[in-house]
Design brief:
Elements lengths: L46 E7 L8 E9 L2 E8 L3 E6 L10 E2 L2 E4 L4 E4 L3 E6 L4 E7 L3 E5 L2 E5 L4 E5 L4 E6 L6 E7 L2 E7 L6 E5 L20 E6 L2 E6 L2 E6 L8 E5 L5 E7 L2 E6 L3 H4 L8 E4 L5 E5 L6 E9 L2 E8 L4 E5 L4 E5 L8 E6 L4 E6 L3 E6 L4 E2 L4 E2 L4 E7 L2 E7 L2 E7 L4 E7 L7 E3 L2 E6 L2 E6 L4 E6 L5 E7 L2 E8 L2 E6 L5 E6 L12 E9 L2 E8 L4 E5 L11 E2 L9 E10 L2 E10 L2 E9 L4 E8 L6 E4 L4 E5 L5 E7 L1
Antiparallel strand pairs: 1-56, 2-3, 3-4, 4-5, 6-7, 7-8, 8-9, 10-11, 11-12, 12-13, 14-15, 15-16, 17-18, 18-19, 19-20, 21-22, 22-23, 23-24, 25-26, 26-27, 27-28, 29-30, 30-31, 31-32, 31-33, 34-35, 35-36, 36-37, 38-39, 39-40, 40-41, 42-43, 43-44, 44-45, 46-47, 47-48, 48-49, 50-51, 51-52, 52-53, ...
Length: 650
């Protein structure tokens, strides 16, 4: 599914065609004549409970699949990007155990290896107890009842039958591994990462066997390694490969070329190869990402295909069910499916998760939330239960904004430019209004304000009609409320102008000079337009700086000392505000540290108190949506395919 860049959910880029001359403060802007408000004093930081991940009953992007058993009955075990491991009956896909936390799962014969970002553990589904714990593995492979686990410095060996560690092998970094038998010797094939060769070791002593060799392209980054007899099978972006391990210097060849539709998952077994493709959107047609699982002989001859997944295949597993050879598959369409390899028929499918690329979130109150996807799907969530409240609503695609007022959800769309009103109780569309919105929507006293087509639009929600439109100055524009009055703040060339949305008049304009140590030519970013305690404020950040500044919208002066987020090192990190909101009189923000395209971590901050809330979450991705209530609920979409909820208290 096509995703909007994360920064587009926080910073609304609107380049207007016309400019408006500077003007004096508008006498009709009541917030400009409000009583002076002292700078908010340092406050005790809010405390956080959570986060709690909402459970949609299924996965958001399946990452791994595996066959297992429970009480002698076959089950499927799957892990998803949302961070849960789930257990399903076969072939009916009924949940048989409560989900575990993790992003990878591998059946070990009696137990299951569950892995997450930092830690892993071996867990027994019969006793519901942890057998042993270990650091998150870099690479694993299972063979003859022995689990080989690489931690980056050595390979440890776990005996799955005795449930004990056998020791370790002097083998360094191993991102991918496969075990087998070559000329009567038990071997372990490892791959350490990009530009590294394959290496063979004796899997009892860890001594090297033979000479290292490369895949045809040393940058191909092999995955899904399997040893079958004297051959090594694996996949890369080029296709499905095979290498004869008996050769003095093996020369891998491509059995099945990718042909422009990259294999995302593969498996190899005696007499069978399987590859799961992901058809690019430009090849799949409008709204289609159907991706087949193709079956091949070990010589590369196409035997047939399995059709049914609506998005890229991410994982495959081979097994038997009632004497029938079957295949498990996981996909980016959020489902796990079971296939009969003889008839090529689908035998069952897990329910799709309710979280699938959520781009926008809004909170009706502390009990109900709404999540929206770019394809137009809306899901109401019961926050107390942590589960979906009813079926999803499906609207038009190109959804780019979301707001909630009472029991009505408002969605903005860009193609065609429209605004839709939804009844959250009846789960139906109420009205469609002209003039879309491509960024955050403001709802205040029955009025709706949004930005689209380089225009600011205002609607009367009660009368369900458009009231007015006007063009802001050229630049980056963000909407906000000052003492309940809607304003538009535009940033261009590090100069800010503030405009009253009701009168369309410019209220102020000022340049924002850099702080000491900041570059004068580095870009500013608008992070928040709203209240800072009792004072209207504009919050800005600057590229290659971790300072967060709170500015007076009339003068541009700092309302309080700039807050500096600690850097992990001396590099030119940027503090990015991925979302802001007002909670119990405090201004809170989701702050991400980013260096070029590298994301270090994301953390809630109490900007009023100048302190972080809770612990930083290590991540490589930005969040995609953020919402708060004044009474302390914070809802975040991401990172990855999950919705997280915090409760903040003074």
């Amino acid at each position: 599914m096509r995703r909007w860049p994360a920064f587009a959910l926080v910073w609304l880029l609107v380049s207007a065609c016309t400019s408006t001359p500077a003007g004096a403060p508008s006498p009709s802007s009541s917030w400009t004549s409000a009583k002076p408000c002292p700078s908010p004093p340092a406050a005790t930081a809010l405390r956080a409970e959570g986060p709690r991940v909402l459970d949609g009953g299924g996965h958001g992007n399946v990452l791994t699949v595996s066959f297992g058993s429970l009480g002698g009955e076959p089950i499927a075990i799957s892990a998803g990007a949302e961070g849960t491991v789930r257990f399903w009956s076969l072939p009916g896909f009924r949940p048989v155990l409560e989900p575990l936390a993790g992003t990878s799962a591998l059946w070990l014969g009696h137990d299951v290896l569950v892995s997450g970002e930092k830690h892993a553990y071996v867990w027994n589904p019969g006793t519901r107890r942890v057998v042993t714990r270990l650091p998150a593995p870099r690479g694993t492979t299972l063979h003859d009842g022995l689990l080989y686990v690489s931690d980056g410095e050595r390979v440890r060996v776990w005996d799955t039958r005795a449930r004990s560690w056998r020791g370790s092998l002097p083998i360094g970094r191993a991102e991918e591994m496969a075990a087998g038998r070559l000329r009567g010797q038990d071997i372990l094939v490892t791959y350490a990462g990009m530009e590294e060769p394959f290496r063979l070791y004796d899997r009892h002593t860890g001594r090297p066997v033979g000479k290292p060799f490369y895949s045809g392209d040393e940058f191909a980054d092999p995955d899904d390694l399997v040893v079958i007899g004297d051959t090594l099978h694996y996949r890369t972006y080029e296709g499905l490969h095979v290498a004869d391990l008996t050769a003095a210097k093996p020369r891998p060849s491509i059995l099945v070329p990718a042909d422009g539709t990259r294999f995302r998952a593969a498996l190899a077994a005696p007499g069978l190869l399987a590859g799961g493709r992901r058809v690019p959107e430009e090849q799949g047609g409008e709204g289609s990402l159907a991706s087949p699982i193709e079956l091949f002989s070990t010589s590369g001859e196409l035997l047939g295909s399995l059709q049914g997944h609506d998005a890229g295949i991410t994982s495959l597993a081979l097994g038997t069910l009632d004497g029938t050879r079957v295949l498990l598959s996981g996909s980016e369409d959020n489902t796990v499916r079971l296939w009969d390899l003889a008839t090529r028929r689908q035998l069952g499918s897990s329910p799709a998760g309710a979280v699938d690329g959520v781009d926008h979130v809004a909170l009706a109150d502390d009990r109900l939330a709404v999540a929206a996807e770019e394809n137009g799907a809306l899901q109401v969530w019961d926050l107390a239960e942590g589960r979906p409240a009813g079926a999803r609503m499906t609207g038009p695609g190109s959804l780019t904004s979301l707001a909630v007022t009472g029991s009505v959800a408002v969605t903005g769309h860009y193609d065609p430019p429209t605004v839709h009103l939804w009844d959250l109780n009846a789960r139906k569309l109420l009205a469609t209004l002209p003039g879309g919105a491509v960024g955050p929507l403001l709802v205040n006293d029955g009025r709706l304000v949004g930005l689209a087509d380089r225009q600011i639009h205002t609607w009367d929600l009660t009368a369900r009609r458009q009231l007015a439109t006007f063009a802001p100055p050229p630049g980056t524009t963000r909407l906000g409320l000052f003492h309940g009055e809607p304003v538009a703040v535009t940033l261009k060339d590090n100069t800010i102008s503030v405009r009253d949305v009701t009168t369309h008049e410019q209220v102020s304009t000022f340049a924002v000079p850099p702080l000491a140590g900041e570059r004068a030519d580095s870009w500013l970013a608008l992070g928040h337009v709203g209240m800072y305690g009792c004072a209207p404020a504009i919050v800005v950040t600057r590229l290659e700086s971790t300072a967060i500044r709170v500015l007076d919208p009339m003068t541009g002066r700092d309302l309080t000392a700039p807050l500096t987020v600690p850097r992990p090192d001396d590099s030119l990190w940027t503090a990015v505000l991925d979302g802001t909101g007002e909670v119990a009189g405090h201004l809170v923000a989701q702050v991400t540290l980013q260096l070029d395209d590298i994301v270090q971590h994301s953390q809630l901050w109490d900007l009023s108190a100048g302190r972080p809330i809770g612990r930083a979450q290590p991540t490589t991705r930005r969040i995609s949506a953020f919402a708060t209530t004044p009474t302390g609920t914070v809802l975040v979409s991401g990172p990855d395919e999950k919705l997280q909820v915090w409760r903040l208290t003074p």
